[in-house]
Amino acid sequence: MKLYTKTGDAGNTKLVGGRTVSKASERVASYGTIDELNSWLGYLLIQVNPLHSDIRYDIEMIQQVLFDCGTDLATPDGHRDYRVVEPQVTWLEGRIDVYATEPPLIEQFIIPGGTLDASLLHIARTTTRRAERHIVGLMATDTINTAVLRFINRLSDYFYAVARAVNARQGTADVFYQNSDKVFHNF
Fold it and tell me: Where do the Cobalamin adenosyltransferase-like domain residues begin and end (predicted)?
């Protein structure tokens, strides 16, 4: 199989089942953003502190599910069975519950940051949110595996919880949001 198909020369790509669509479609934006997120997680894995072996394991598992999410998003309804199923969503919810208990409870917004690990996780969180927006846009016109949307929705929560847990584990306080009027008033 050749790496190049020349289908993209006209700005198109093929979906599972052979249907040709524009590379500018919401479907391609959806699974393309999932692919971008998965690549980001590969980078995150080589950067994250090796002491966080539980988080490293989770991310390796998440990368596998993300590949399935991309496949499901590239599969028009009825072309084959979907890969992402409810137990993957339930697993992610359980992991969120574990990490959410590590940092102190807060009742205010945080600014992405703290440790390097937490900062990288916040980038993953916001990339996940972008993927979710594309998936919702796709749902307006096409039928998709809704378990993908649920998994992606939970995944941004997961990255938030893990970023906070990493800061707590490394003894670094979260950076709290302050109204910019108050911040600039002090200058």
Answer: 3-165
Looking at residue 16, what is its pLDDT?
A: 87
**What pTM value is reported for the model?**
0.92
What's the half-sphere exposure (Cβ side, CA atoms, 13 Å) at 129? 10
pLDDT digits 0-9 by tens, 52-110: 999 999 999 999 999 999 999 999 887 778 999 999 999 999 999 999 999 999 999 99
Q: What domain range is 76 assigned to?
A: 23-185
Residue 175, classed as helix, strand or coil, is strand
Residue 87 near residue 28 (C-beta atoms within 8 A): no
Q: Identify whether 153 is part of a domain.
A: yes
The strand pairing partners of 110, in sequence order, are 176
The residue among 163, 153, 154, 152 whose CA lies nearest residue 110 is: 163
In the chain, the number of structural domains is: 1
CA max distance for the chain: 63
Using DSSP, state whether 37 is helix, strand or coil. helix
